[in-house]
Design brief:
Helices cover about 10% and strands about 35% of the residues. It is mainly β and about 150 residues long. It has a domain of about 60 residues: Immunoglobulins (Immunoglobulin-like). The strands form 3 sheets. The protein has a 4-stranded antiparallel sheet, with no helix packed on it. Strands 1-5-4 form a 3-stranded antiparallel sheet, with no helix packed on it. The longest helix has 7 residues. It starts with a strand and ends with a helix.
Length: about 150
């Protein structure tokens, strides 16, 4: 059965990438940026990035027909796990593209209570949050103090 060729790009200092528990031989086109093309057989996969800053992992599915439980197994977005296609559309080349606004599910009023910025002041929620899952509270990319310091001294 032929596999799908995918390009994986990740960021991290002194990091290594593992796909399904096996190390990947990556190129480093820029400092701290890793790139590799991998062939994936249809099915479930797990990508892990290990660096001195910590470990990040995502689970995903490869293939034309995801399992019936894909929204429960592969999208790690609380409070309930959601399907990839809730936020992404698929391009003609078969690549996911972000197509929805986070505020279609997250209304403005609660946002204002928990954030110091108006929604329009941020370029995207992904500047601070990882909708695919995070070990940090509120799906932050970094702990709150570090996340805020990315833009504020």
């Amino acid at each position: 059965m032929p596999g799908a060729e995918v390009q994986i790009i990740a960021r991290g200092e002194a990091a290594k990438l593992l796909l399904d528990g096996k190390p990947l031989e990556v190129e480093e086109p820029f400092p701290g940026v890793y790139s590799v093309t991998a062939e994936l057989l249809p099915g479930a996969h797990r990508l892990r990035l290990e660096s001195p800053e910590g470990v990040s992992e995502i689970s995903f599915h490869s293939g034309a027909v995801p399992p019936d439980t894909a929204s429960e197994k592969y999208a790690d977005h609380p409070p309930s796990r959601i399907a990839c296609t809730h936020c992404h559309s698929v391009s003609r080349r078969g690549r996911f593209r972000f197509s929805g606004g986070c505020q279609s599910c997250h209304p403005k009023e609660p946002f204002i209570k928990t954030h110091s910025h108006e929604p329009h002041e941020l370029a995207s929620c992904g500047m601070c949050h990882d909708a695919h899952g995070s070990a940090t509270a509120q799906l932050l990319l970094l702990p709150k103090e570090q996340a805020c310091r990315q833009c504020h001294n």
